[in-house]
Amino acid sequence: MSAPSSPETDRPDLPAESDPFVRGLSQAIGGPLGDHAVRPGARTDRFWTAQRIILALMCMTLALSWVQKSPCQDGNWQQNVQYTRFCYTDVLALYYAEGLNEGKVPYRDHPVEYPVVTGYFMGALGLPVHALGQKYPQINQGKWFYNANALILSALAVASLMTILALRRRRPWDAAIFALSPILLVTATVNWDFLAIALAMFGLYAWARRWPVLAGVLLGLGGAAKLWPLFILGPLVVLGLRSKRLVPTLLTVASAVVTVVAVNLPIALLYRDSWLRFFGLNNERPIDWGTLWYIGRYLDTKWNTGVAGDQGPFQWLSDHVPVLNNVSYALTFLACAAIGALCLLAPRRPRLSQVAFVVVAVFLIFSKVWSQQYVLWLLPLIVLARPRWGAIIAWSVAEIGYFTAFYAELLGAGKKPVIPEGTFVLASSLRLITVAILCGLVIREIWRPELDPVRRTYTDDPDGGAFDEAPDAGWVSPLRQRLRLAPRADAPEPTPEDAPPPPPEPAAVG
Length: 510
Known about the structure:
Order of helices and strands: HHHHHHHHHHHHHHHHHHHHHH
Oligomer: single chain
Largest sheet: none
Distance between the termini: 26 Å
Number of helices: 22
Structural class: mainly alpha
Number of strands: 0
Shape: globular
């Protein structure tokens, strides 16, 4: 078990010293902190601690996000204003599409295309807004519904940020990557993804605090909202095998399964057809915008006409969705198996957030559906997995480029194209490539843990919970030796730079 936090053990990170990208940018304002500067962690009566500054920046980003979506709030989407102003949001569109504006109860009166916790959330806000609209017909129900959702989703985003700050007490500026992300600005309220994100982050925090049952309940609720938080259970099992910490791992997995069953069972029993809508829709959906399969289908058109007998592999898969589903699942499974092998054979047990990020990322890379808001799934995980500003900024630029090209593509759907199809495919490819590069960088730091910036601040894994400081199972070293992966006997010792001396006590979270 890790030693408790204290002035002697905490070693706050200074990004202008530890991150080459930030160090370069800092030259514009005088360079890294000097010897006489008030450093993070020093005792001071200043109100603006690092944590409070980051929270303020987060609130600023969310406020700008609300402004950016404001042209769409009234639901008067004439002349494609939702695309020309880049303000489209499923939250407002589905208020009407799901019948909430008519007082329909999700699942009972109308099938919902989302897992049940998201359906519950929609109904919990939508039905009161409809009742209010019945009492006061002059109000714009859609606008009230969107703003109520935006307020709660923003609160969940702030709670997610606070969880990152709690998990990275010695590296508070890592959370600024999340708080200042342009990805957050343009997608925070496109859909209800922050409901699942917040539950997943709370689950990771509960695991880090060694509350395995609570962690499972929270991850289960997150998985019943958007499914992907359940993917974190796989890394927990693999890391539990490597560290011989299977009891807490199995408690988490079991409580997650029980939670998923408990929240789904009432709807599955009472409104089976409506409950199955989510699964049926995912099986039936064709290749979606901007995915690997969409890019491949476009490239096929350069050599094949697409008619029967003259189709490329991606064109053929586009016409055979059940086969496409199986290929997508198989590639995801093989990638996850490779990640599992990496976890078991790496020189040092990987950190939980590193593995979780790569698993969620490969799922998106091979998925036939990659909606614009799915990028939010990766944002908190990459901040925890690899808090390096340079690579994340490059990825963010690619995501914003895709966001812009996607809306231009929607504007030209069925009409005169706004941009050439090749431009949209290029933007999609850059998004895919940058996510793959992030995976490669995280994998490199798993295989070469001395490059991991988080491990230069913490002795092991601040998110690891029961895994933190745990020795490897007895079979790991013999297996690595058998595969000739064991470090050489003459391997150099870590350099002094890898373990900097502890500075003074960090400031408490405001």
